[in-house]
Design goal:
heterodimer; A: about 190 residues; mainly beta; five-stranded mixed sheet; about 50% strand; B: about 160 residues; globular
């Protein structure tokens, strides 16, 4: 599902809605915001999401910038699962949410109907061409008996201004009613 | 053009008898809600975030807490609200809850919280309300005692394109 973020005039104010996509029936393997204007200082993505698998697993939700799928991403995270905590890091990942534990969403196993993960992703100074790009994510999903909540940082080791974001799942699709909304914050 | 991120209502507690702060008739015209609070409680008791005045056991949460010396995680199931603060809160606590997609009628509602007790700990929490109803009322309730005068809660709405 491709959304051209630069199309149309945005509303006034310092926090502006750029584009939104809601996954329709049948699901979607990717959610893309393209042609993102460089006129903001920061970006924020707010979402709810669910994965189409049925294996009773948390599935990694990945995102890449500017269609770059090379190993130039890294991340750190800390999480709690209701019984224990954990923290880890990934380097040279091929996407900022890669390798399992990050930006995860639950699949559609029996008993979890209507339950969606939620997250707020901040992408700071995204249009700057002098430094690598850093983002942070707060995400969680509670399933009334299991669940995870996590704080994460991620780094894209490119100085290129970000003009495109692709979200996908490590396996499966985003289910119907998953929704991603992209906002721009003025500096 | 309408504002994208705007305050809906702010409530400041006065006196010594307020155990619940309620935002009712929440407009359905936004995409997400954000609840920002700076609260002191009269007692070290649990407090709850509730929706649509539902006091049934339809809530659950998973949380992550750091105390400065350890990190822990805990869970609550079939609760009477999404536990908001936990443990000592006779000091000031500040919290931001993100309630994404609050007005849809097809999914259960997930709320994401960043919770700080300014003297004792910080945490993150995710809560679930097992209802597909659109959220029209948001309330904060202490399980005993009262919310101390001067505590503030502000509800914001964010509207997606």
């Amino acid at each position: 599902m491709l959304i051209l973020a630069g199309v149309g005039a945005g509303p006034s104010g310092d926090y502006q809605s750029i584009a939104t996509t809601t996954v329709g029936s049948g699901g979607s393997s990717t959610v893309t915001f393209d042609n993102i204007s460089g006129t903001y200082k920061h970006l924020q993505v707010r979402y709810i999401a669910r994965n189409s698998g049925t294996g009773d697993n948390f599935i990694a939700m990945k995102w890449i910038f500017n269609s770059d799928a090379t190993a130039v991403y890294s991340n750190h995270y800390i999480y709690g699962n209701g019984a224990a905590t954990g923290s880890a890091a990934t380097t040279s990942a091929s996407s900022a949410g890669g390798d399992g534990m990050l930006g995860m969403i639950k699949d559609n196993a029996a008993g979890y109907t209507n339950m969606y993960a939620a997250g707020v992703l901040d992408i700071l100074d995204y249009a700057n061409t002098n430094k690598y790009k850093t983002c942070r994510l707060l995400w969680g999903e509670d399933l009334n008996g299991s669940g995870r909540v996590a704080l994460q940082s991620a780094n894209w080791q490119k100085t290129t201004a970000i003009n495109r974001i692709d979200f996908s799942c490590a396996t499966g699709d985003f289910m119907q009613y998953s929704q991603f909304a992209l906002y721009g914050i003025k500096g | 053009m309408p504002a994208t991120y705007e305050p809906i209502s702010t409530q400041t507690v006065s006196g010594t008898s307020t155990s619940t702060v309620t935002f009712s008739s929440v407009p359905q015209t936004y995409t997400d809600l954000v609840l920002v609070s700076a609260i002191t409680q009269s007692a070290d008791v649990a407090s709850y975030l509730r929706f649509n005045s539902d006091t049934g056991t339809n809530y659950s949460r998973t949380r992550l807490v750091g105390t400065g010396s350890s990190a822990t995680s805990a869970r609550g199931t079939n609760d009477v609200g999404i536990e908001f603060y936990f443990g000592t809160l006779t000091n000031l606590g500040n919290t931001i809850w993100q309630i994404n997609n609050y007005s849809n009628t097809t999914t259960y509602k997930t709320a994401l919280g960043r919770i700080n007790n300014t003297f004792d700990w910080l945490g993150a929490s995710v809560g679930l309300w097992r209802s597909t109803a659109a959220i029209s009322t948001v309330s904060y309730t202490v399980s005993s005692g009262y919310i101390v005068a001067g505590s503030t809660l502000t509800l914001y709405g964010i509207k997606a394109a």
